[in-house]
Fold this sequence. Notes:
Radius of gyration: 21 Å
Mean pLDDT: 82
Helix content: 40-55%
InterPro entries: Nicotian_synth, SAM-dependent_MTases_sf
Protein name: Nicotianamine synthase
Bound molecules: S-adenosylmethionine
Strand order of the largest sheet: 1-7-8-6-5-2-3-4
Organism: Myceligenerans indicum
Distance between the termini: 37 Å
CATH topology of the largest domain: Rossmann fold
Order of helices and strands: HEHHHHHHHEHEHEEHEEE
Number of helices: 11
Low-confidence stretches: 1-62
Region (Disordered): 1-67
CATH superfamily of the largest domain: Vaccinia Virus protein VP39
Structural class: alpha/beta
Keywords: S-adenosyl-L-methionine, Transferase
Shape: globular
Oligomer: single chain
Largest sheet: 8 strands, mixed
Amino acid sequence: xxxxxxxxDTMHLASTDTEIQADEAAGQVxxxxxxxxxxxxxxxxxxxxxAPGTGPGAGSAAHSAAHSAAHSAARSAAAVADELVxxxxxxxxxxxxxxxxxxxxxxxxxVRTVTTTPPPVARVVRTHPGVxxxxxxxxxxxxxxxxxxxxxxxxxxxxxxxxxxxxxxFPYGDNYRDLVAMELRLLRRHxxxxxxxxxxxxxxxxxxxxxxxxxxxxxxxxxxxxxxPAAVAAARRFLDATREAAGSTREAGTVVVHDDAHRVPLxxxxxxxxxxxxxxxxxxxxxxxxxxxxxxxPETLLLARSAHGxxxxxxxxxxxxxxxxxxxxxxxxxxxxxxxxMIVARRV
Length: 348
Ligand SMILES: C[S@@+](CC[C@H](N)C(=O)[O-])C[C@H]1O[C@@H](n2cnc3c(N)ncnc32)[C@H](O)[C@@H]1O
């Protein structure tokens, strides 16, 4: 996987198209959880299909070589599409999406496919009728699977005799850390010299590692919000159990509030983080962004998690041009294991 580095992977608005093309040429544009890759890539499996452009070649005329490459890419796209259709249908047939061998294997295969398919093939895959007919379903399965995974680990950590040690066993801890670290690097470019007074994470889920990561990274108070009472109760139990391991850091002061992202007051916060799964359709996302603009203080920053390319099969994609009330400052499509794209915007 390519390494993360601010100069390569971040797309400043002025040069977004050019840099996307450069990254695509290098086979590195990716997008997408809000968050952590929810499932590990387990075992070699069949892979997402042959790399494009590996056609026969020797002795062919240029036209024939180009034709072969296109044909090969089309065949690869068909294989990737068939795989995604099959995986979605198998996940749909499961009675529960709680972590277990079948759930882990199927989600791992989905994540591996969306993160490793080269962009030119991915573009064709997204237009495949079987895939486009299942996009909503796959996003819904992914959201339910991620919530079930987080609830499972939140409970497991909160009830462990040594919650700190159990937290270190959480297999996706590195994904959360990497994601939050990338977001903080991006945000710091636009934060003033003052430490923000407070950050709010909308859609914290039962395992509020984004909220604790921001509290630790920014050295500030963090408020974690969720509209699901079960997620709120689990997040509070998790924080109570891990408070001792967090010591006296700001992270230990993270609080969880039961409220809706469309309603919770935002004026006191200098940074607002919008989880990828708050607003799961384009219409719902636009509505939530509009309501954030109505409640945020001018000049404060929004970090919105998004998705790009095939990763948008798992998480909704935000079109920066629809973010009225905001000045979009940075858009980043990470390469590698981090699935979510991120947008930094200033409330105007
Ligand atoms: C699976 S989780 C955790 C966050 C995830 N890792 C991410 O970044 O998207 C997403 C959470 O968003 C919450 N959520 C969805 N819509 C919301 C809303 N309108 N207001 C508050 N919470 C919301 C859900 O209840 C769920 O717990």
